[in-house]
């Protein structure tokens, strides 16, 4: 994970996991696998990126998760690229 420190607040991670429940089943499945694999290793930077992703519409989020498009503008950052790679491989 990222060197910016482990995200040790279980309540913050639980809220993030709850927010990840989406209207599209495909998004739900990707996030469920992701959290099963990485939840306890997330850094503060990872949580910030995931929060940004969860602010997107379901369809925009799906396009990023399925690599139909790459992040641009505010979303284009090394942390975003790394977390998207983790989500896509989960």
From TrEMBL:
Q: Any keyword Secreted?
A: no
Q: Which GO terms describe its cellular component?
A: cytoplasm
Instruction: Tell me the Gene Ontology biological-process terms attached to this UniProt entry.
Output: succinate metabolic process
Q: Which residues cross the membrane?
A: none
Q: Does the keyword Chaperone apply?
A: yes
Subcellular localization, as worded in the UniProt entry: Cytoplasm
The protein's UniProt keywords, in alphabetical order, are: Chaperone, Cytoplasm
Identify the PANTHER family for this entry: FAD ASSEMBLY FACTOR SDHE
Protein family (similarity comment): Belongs to the SdhE FAD assembly factor family.
What's the name of the protein? FAD assembly factor SdhE
Q: Which organism is it from?
A: Caballeronia sordidicola (Burkholderia sordidicola)
Q: What is the lineage of its organism?
A: Bacteria, Pseudomonadati, Pseudomonadota, Betaproteobacteria, Burkholderiales
């Amino acid at each position: 994970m990222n060197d910016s420190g482990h995200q040790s607040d279980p309540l913050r991670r639980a809220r993030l996991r709850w927010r990840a429940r989406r209207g599209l089943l495909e998004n739900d499945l990707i996030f469920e696998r992701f959290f099963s694999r990485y939840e306890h290793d997330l850094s503060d930077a990872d949580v910030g990126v995931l929060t940004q992703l969860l602010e997107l519409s379901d369809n925009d989020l799906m396009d990023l998760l399925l690599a139909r498009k790459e992040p641009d503008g505010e979303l284009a950052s090394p942390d975003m690229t790394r977390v998207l790679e983790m989500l896509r491989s989960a």
